[in-house]
Amino acid sequence: MADLAKLVDELSALSVLEAAELVKALEEKWGVSAAAPVAVAAAGAAPVAAAEAAEEKTEFDVVLKDAGPKKIEVIKVIRTLTSLGLVEAKTMAETAGSKVLTAVSKQVAADAKSKLEAAGGVVELA
Fold first, then answer.
1. Among 78, 82, 96, 124, which is disulfide-ready with 89 (CB 3.0 to 4.6 Å)?
2. Residue 9 domain flag
3. pLDDT in tens, 12-35
4. DSSP H or E segment with residue 21
5. Which CATH number characterizes residue 111's domain?
6. Is the pTM of this model over 0.85?
7. CB contact set of 76 (below 8 Å; sequence gap of 6+)
């Protein structure tokens, strides 16, 4: 029988990548789904599993993919969202992939997306 204390110490020393490799190896060896090995790995390396679970995205970028047919309306919305001048907002509307807002909350990003889409723009949250 294996020394359980030694095994716990060795599992605790694994990096996240090594733990992921261990999960894959155990899944292949035992022929089980990913849920069971993850639970086994999480029991041995609880801080790693807790860190992965806590990584929920809280900051979003509002990216304008295309101004669409109503570019003037999109420019007006950009100006209200960012307080940019007319020239800067026009340049942003004409440049595909421009970040209108950076590192904003989910609610602010969703609000900005809906306003830009209502004006005719194509928007993506990143």
1. 78
2. yes
3. 887 877 877 888 887 788 777 655
4. helix 16-30
5. 3.30.1390.10
6. no
7. 119
